[in-house]
Amino acid sequence: MKPILLTSKRHLDDNDVRQCLRIAFGGMLGFILCKLMGWNYGAFFVVQPILLLGIVPVINAHMLRQFVANMLVVSLAVLVVQGLFGDKPVPMTLLVMGMFALLFGQMSGGANFLFGAMSVVNMSMQLHFASYPQADIGDIVASNIVSVFSTLFIALLMQQLFPDVAPRAPRPLVRKSASTRRHEVILATTVATASFIVFQVFNLQSGLSAQVASILVLFPLNWRGAGPAGWNRALGTLVGCNLGLVVQLVLMDHFDVLPFVAAGLWICLMLFARIHMLEVGSGAGFAALTTMAILFGQYLTPRQDLFYSALYRFWSLSLSVLLSLSAIYLLHLLLDRFAATRWAAPKPVSV
């Protein structure tokens, strides 16, 4: 019998431990900062440090440029798309589809994967918030800009406090055929656009986590990677929601005491960061990290606990992942029928 959770490593090395510390303390600092300042859209301030520190093991100039570019592109896109075309569904949908195609193209190319990945997630989150009747687009964009600069400060601080102890081996380079890249861009763009339409048409304002899940499951950009990604995401979300409830039960009536909540969040992030490092990739650990970030950052307030949010989040996310995987599989079969969009495994490039 295969284990429920498959890992690529048995033990963490020194660099992995340092990255775990960066993720846990970075997410906790983002949470404390947004709660102390009383900023809206706390998910931005907790999710972004975890995404950046979880995806990128070492922050360098190229990564910083991609992260800042993501802020500029997404802010402009949300202001134009939602501000000018928010009441015109067809032009808005076409613009969103075009943006998704450009961003997934950057992810498929590989060199600017962080820019594409962060932009897709942030644009989806901001368009979700902007669909609220009471939403202020200016406030949403301003909150994202502030969260980007706070994330950069947190990430650089974490790298200074917990630097790697040994040089990391460079990631292996791969070469994709033109048909493979077309396959990945068309597949991911179509599913992401369908997710956007569903959440807009059915006005699912409480489904932020489900919409983000439908985007994160597309990160492998193909069916072969999306299947395990969907299972991992559901598993990680289940564990994350349950651990969030455990923290709530332990705190009981003290969930409005910030130091207690921050300590509980740090323990959870450290545990899931360890699993993320053992998996080596976007697996159950990474899904649990983003789950905790959204639960604590967006839904936990002194007047609102996590019980309803955690239970609703798991069931809505499970349905979102199931529908996304079904769409990915059907599109994969369709695109593979044509030579121009047939997917083939990328080939390693010898340096």
Automatic annotation (TrEMBL):
GO terms for cellular component: membrane. The chain crosses the membrane at residues 67-85, 92-120, 140-162, 208-227, 234-251, 257-273, 280-300, 312-335. It comes from the Bacteria. Residues 196-325 form the Integral membrane bound transporter domain. This is Fusaric acid resistance protein-like. It is found in: Membrane. Keywords: Membrane, Transmembrane, Transmembrane helix. It is a multi-pass membrane protein.
